[in-house]
Design a protein that fits this description.
This protein is of the alpha+beta class. The protein has 7 domains: about 80 residues, Phosphorylase Kinase, domain 1 (2-Layer Sandwich); about 180 residues, Orthogonal Bundle (Transferase(Phosphotransferase), domain 1), CATH 1.10.510; about 50 residues, no CATH class; about 60 residues, Trypsin Inhibitor V, Chain A, CATH 3.30.10; about 60 residues, Trypsin Inhibitor V, Chain A (2-Layer Sandwich), CATH 3.30.10.20; about 60 residues, Trypsin Inhibitor V, Chain A; about 80 residues, Immunoglobulin-like, CATH 2.60.40. Helices cover about 30% and strands about 25% of the residues. It is built from 19 helices and 31 strands. The strands form 10 sheets. The chain has a 6-stranded antiparallel beta sheet with strand order 1-2-3-4-6-5. Strands 26, 27, 29, 30 and 31 form a 5-stranded antiparallel beta sheet that branches. A 3-stranded antiparallel beta sheet has the order 7-8-9. A hairpin with a 2-residue loop joins strand 29 and strand 30. The longest helix has 30 residues.
Length: about 700
């Protein structure tokens, strides 16, 4: 059902206009009368609203998404229902989707791609920190606002869709789906990273990596095939960018970025060093198959530690492989159709009872030994007992003196004091975490004045004094310097600069440039019209600055003005964003007076809007005049009777054509006689006289004026 403008939902939201539609819902622009602001309302389509199982999951996920607040996430304000209509109230973002932007430009520049990708990743990072996975990242779900922000929309909706039994065409485009989603298996934050990788791929080359005749065909390609390398499509794409995209699009989730924060860090490094070799392969070096420990390895471990065979196997496994996280274990358990999974998860394998008993016994023994060692060290540290088991004077703090009498009756003092090595893992972590870590080691922590850093994020420990690796003792002081983040700079005014100068300035200051183009009547083509943020704003390295560059006044086509009146020609030029130039007038034997004979710029010519077009208006045919004087030599009445008269016709001969130009009845007294004539030609001409229909001798030569 389509909602009409003026419709109210729950007495609060007034529908203003329908602004979009998708596989799941129709989107409307509405006015929130309670808060007096414009919002976007997504109303579920009928086939979804009737499915109560879906509605329940949808409501729960949408409510969770409503808790997300970030500049790169379209905010969800409300989730409600009225008369069977289920809808979400969201932030209204004026702009276009990333998909439309890619289609309009063909493909995006590397800088545009990195800038937009960082913003998408920042939105995903906040969602993942809140345990929300998008599951449908694609350009259609990214909105580029007019101020240059990339905003991710539809958080929480995809999970409700994919966890319900519905037709595949409503779930979203299969062109961006991760291999684990394509298999119908478990998906998590790394599924979003894969889809973002596909989105980056499309931004860089203008098309998705996999296409096919059916969704099944495309899904199989995601599972089985590798995408065409980006450098083969466009050799100008930096090596680091290609490696980042490749890492995001790894088939195995464990080989992708561990989290979005790592992806953001690499993207920012790529801005500074596009050709740097800093992108590390993701996940463990193994291919996920069962790790076999050699007999030599077991013997070496047993010799060094005195461990049992079972304990040695456990130690070797820990040395050979990083500990599997709980999320990875859950993911592998859910992929029951993958034969390699069972080999990776020892809990799913059947263990020989004898081996199991041996491992359990060895494990218990190891625990007992470990507890005894800890108790022994603890007793040595706090000084509860001396070497003979006698209590020591409680006043002893820094050292313990043990007297041992040998056969030679000599006394030897052995001084023991706990040594603490300043750890390196406190660098790059939040100050609060580092402080707790050091205090738990028995050190005193003090924070120094913060310093700016392009390497460490705000709030992270960037250095320690003493430095990592230094040896200290309980109670010693460690001073930690915390990062204040990148040093803010004041953005200069970019308006009026050339595009080249503006982008050079942004690059030199480690700022990301997003370029929009816009026609302008006042700013020359190639010059910056405005920037967002504006000049004078505070920005940090890595921030995105959108600059709007003039594409000039735009182009238009010159119309055909021939045979139009002057006013008609002027109106036609205005319709084409042109104006009347110089208007000249001249005689024409072929064009009616008052109409256009010709124009200065030929019709169908492409010119800049606002250009002037000259044209010529016809004055009609030009006339030449002459005064014809008929002398007395043509008077036939000499000596005649008074009052006698006759009929005279005067014939003009010009350009081989004879034409009667004057007639009169004259008498003797009318001579000499004259009259005016005109002609459209000024060529030689003469007149002969007809008297009573008979030609008289002689001719009258004409002089034109």
């Amino acid at each position: 059902m389509i909602l009409k403008p003026g419709t109210y939902l729950i007495g609060r939201y007034e529908i203003l206009a329908r602004i979009g539609a998708g596989g799941m819902a129709d989107v409307y622009k509405a006015l929130d009368h309670r808060l007096n602001r414009n919002v976007a309302i997504k109303v579920l389509k009928e086939e979804f609203s009737k499915d109560q199982n879906f509605v329940r999951k949808f409501g729960a996920e949408a409510q969770a998404a409503a808790g997300l607040t970030h500049a790169n996430i379209v905010s969800v304000y409300d989730v409600s229902e009225e008369n069977g209509l289920y809808f979400i109230v969201m932030e209204l973002v004026e702009g276009i989707t990333l998909k439309d932007f890619i289609q309009a430009k063909g493909k995006l520049s590397v800088r545009e791609t990195v800038g937009i990708s960082i913003q998408i990743a920042q939105g995903l990072e906040v969602a993942h920190q809140n345990r929300i996975v998008h599951r449908d990242i694609k350009p259609q779900n990214i909105i580029l606002s007019k101020d240059g922000l990339a905003k991710v929309t539809d958080f929480g909706i995809a999970k409700a869709v994919t966890s319900n039994t519905i037709t595949s065409n409503a779930v979203g485009s299969v062109h961006y789906i991760s291999p684990e989603q394509a298999r119908g298996g478990y998906s998590d934050e790394k599924s979003d990273i894969y889809s973002l990788g596909v989105t980056m791929y499309e931004m860089l080359c203008g098309h998705v990596p996999f296409t096919g005749d059916s969704t099944v065909n495309v899904a199989l390609q995601h599972i089985q095939q590798e995408a065409e390398p980006l450098h083969e499509i466009d050799p100008t794409i930096p090596d680091s960018i290609e490696k980042i995209v490749q890492k995001c699009m790894q088939k195995k989730p464990e080989r992708r970025y561990a989290n979005v924060a790592e992806l953001i860090a690499d993207l920012k490094r790529a801005v500074r060093t596009p050709n740097g070799d800093f992108v590390k392969p993701g996940g463990p070096s193994e291919d996920g198959s069962t790790v076999v420990i050699t007999e030599a390895e077991l013997n070496d471990i047993k010799t060094a530690s005195g461990a049992t065979t079972a304990e040695a196997a456990d130690i070797a496994l820990k040395d050979r492989k990083k500990k599997t996280t709980d999320d990875d274990r859950d993911r592998r358990r859910k992929k029951s159709d993958d034969e390699d999974v069972k080999a990776l998860d020892p809990e799913d394998d059947e263990v020989d009872p004898k081996v199991e008993k041996l491992m359990i016994g060895g494990g218990i023994a190891a625990v007992v030994i470990l507890v005894l060692i800890i108790l022994f060290l603890l007793s040595r540290t706090i000084g509860l007992f001396n070497g003979s088991g006698k209590k020591i004077d409680e006043s002893t703090t820094e050292s313990t003196t043990v007297e041992t009498t040998t056969e030679e009756s000599t006394t030897e003092e052995i001084t023991t004091e706990e040594e603490i090595v300043v750890p390196s893992n406190i660098l790059g972590v939040d100050y609060a975490v580092a402080k707790i870590t050091l205090e738990n080691m028995g050190l005193v922590v003090e924070q120094t004045e913060d310093e700016y850093s392009d390497t460490y994020e705000q709030g992270q420990v960037m250095k320690s004094d003493p430095a990592a690796g230094e040896v200290l003792h309980p109670g010693d002081l460690v001073r930690l310097t915390v990062s204040a983040g990148p040093e803010e700079i004041t953005l200069r005014t970019l308006a009026g600069l050339s595009e080249e100068d503006a982008t050079r300035y942004l690059t030199e200051n480690n700022l990301l440039a997003v370029i929009n183009r816009e026609e302008s009547d006042s700013v020359d083509s190639g010059k910056v019209i405005s920037s967002s943020p504006k000049g004078g704003s505070s920005v940090k390295p890595g921030d995105t600055v959108t600059i709007t560059v003039s594409s000039g006044k735009g182009k238009t086509i010159v119309p055909d003005l021939k045979d139009m009146t002057e006013s008609e020609a002027e109106a036609e030029l205005k319709n084409h964003s042109l104006s009347k130039g110089t208007v000249e007038k001249e005689y024409s034997d072929t064009v009616e007076a008052g109409r256009v004979i010709s124009q200065g710029t030929a019709k169908n010519t492409s010119v800049e809007k606002g250009s002037k077009v000259d044209f010529v208006i016809s004055l009609g045919r030009k006339e030449y005049s002459a005064e014809v004087s008929v002398s007395g030599s043509f008077n036939p009445f000499e000596g005649g009777e008074d009052g006698e008269e006759g009929s005279f016709d005067f014939i003009l001969v010009q350009d081989g054509i004879e034409k009667a130009v004057h007639s009169a009845t004259l008498t003797h007294d009318d001579f000499p006689y004259s009259f005016p004539i005109t002609s459209n030609s000024n060529s030689d001409a003469y007149i002969y006289v007809m008297f009573n229909n008979e030609a008289m001798p002689g001719e009258i030569r004409i002089t034109w004026h």
